[in-house]
Specification:
The structure is a single chain. By secondary structure, the protein is mostly helical. It has a domain at about 85-305. Helix content is about 85%, strand content about 0%. It has helices at about 5-30, 30-35, 40-45, 50, 55-60, 60-85, 90-95, 95-135, 145-150, 155-170, 180-200, 205-235, 240-315. The protein is rod-shaped, with a radius of gyration of 55 Å. The N and C termini lie far apart (about 215 Å).
């Protein structure tokens, strides 16, 4: 009975001894696994010729990069094409309706300016030539009747001045005050001169209006176009120059057209102001000629009347 515990202890030790190598083999079994793993690694190494095939696949991604280079080199070309398309007509067609209306109005104003320029040049040239010719014709006339006979049936401002002077002399027949006749005739001639000045300045007020307002109208179109450009920037949420430039170019085109309409209008107005001033001075000269002829007729009438009275007294 006393040997039973010893046997039990010996059996336990023996069991542990038998179990310990198995346990050691189980613990060591994972360790040789790395030594076995090179075998599958060497198997692909044996298939080295098959691994050479992926080499072109590795080189294949180079092709897109090479293709990207021409694409990048082509991008400036496309940009240049877009810039060439920014012609005045294309900018006008792509502009806002308000900017288009401003451009059309300014173009019409410019057309009116050049029309007035051509019409006034022809008109002033013709009337100055006719008036100078008429003054030369009556240079040797001694009376209003002789001057009218020299001019004939030609119509003009000088003919009107001579007719007004003769009408006043006829209506004032029997009045002994020569100063009153001359004053009334001068008043009639002054009205004719003012009417001629108004007629010859016709259209110059429109030139002044175009020259003064066209830059501001063009500036309104520019402000409107830039405002639309900023609205487009806020919507696209980008500050790329390619997005901003077309709208700003369209806006600035309105200012350019405004200047194109305004600058010639101002220059033409100043030119016609000088030319019409010279013509009005020529008309005033014609009025003075009519006044002198009227004065001669009045003095000649008094001389003839005094001569008649002296002859009657001698009888």
């Amino acid at each position: 009975m006393n040997l039973f515990p010893l046997r039990a202890t010996y059996a336990a030790i023996l069991a542990l001894t038998m179990l310990s190598p198995a346990f050691a083999q189980q613990k060591a079994a994972p360790q040789p696994a790395p030594a076995v793993q090179p075998v599958p690694v060497q198997a692909p190494a044996a298939a080295a010729p098959t691994q050479a095939a992926p080499a072109p696949a590795a080189a294949a991604p180079v092709a897109p990069s090479a293709a990207a280079a021409p694409a990048e080199s082509a991008s400036p070309k496309s940009t240049s094409i877009v810039m060439r398309e920014l012609s005045p007509w294309s900018m006008f067609m792509s502009a806002d309706i308000i900017v288009k209306a401003v451009m059309i109005g300014l173009a019409f104003a410019s057309l009116v300016t050049w029309t007035i320029f051509l019409a006034k040049m022809i008109e002033l040239s013709v009337v100055r030539t006719r008036l100078r010719s008429a003054l030369n014709k009556i240079g040797e006339a001694r009376s209003l009747s002789e001057a009218q006979f020299a001019l004939g049936a030609k119509q003009g401002v000088l003919t009107s001045l001579l007719a007004a002077s003769m009408r006043e002399a006829r209506l004032s027949a029997g009045i002994s005050s020569d100063a009153g006749i001359k004053e009334r005739a001068a008043s009639s001639c002054a009205e004719i001169v003012r009417a001629e000045a108004r007629r010859i300045r016709l259209g110059m007020g429109l030139l002044a209006t175009i020259g003064a307002t066209s830059p501001f109208v063009g500036l309104f179109g520019t402000v409107w176009g830039i405002m639309n450009s900023f609205i487009g920037i806020s919507k696209s949420q980008t500050t790329n120059l390619a997005v901003v430039a077309p709208g700003i170019a369209e806006a600035l085109l309105a200012t350019a057209i405004g200047l194109v309409a305004a600058i010639p209008a101002v220059i033409i107005y100043n030119h016609f102001a000088r030319v019409t001033k010279g013509y009005i001075e020529l008309v005033n000269r014609a009025s003075g000629v009519a006044a002198r002829l009227l004065s001669r007729d009045l003095d000649r009438t008094h001389v003839s009347s005094h001569g008649g009275s002296h002859s009657r007294a001698a009888e």
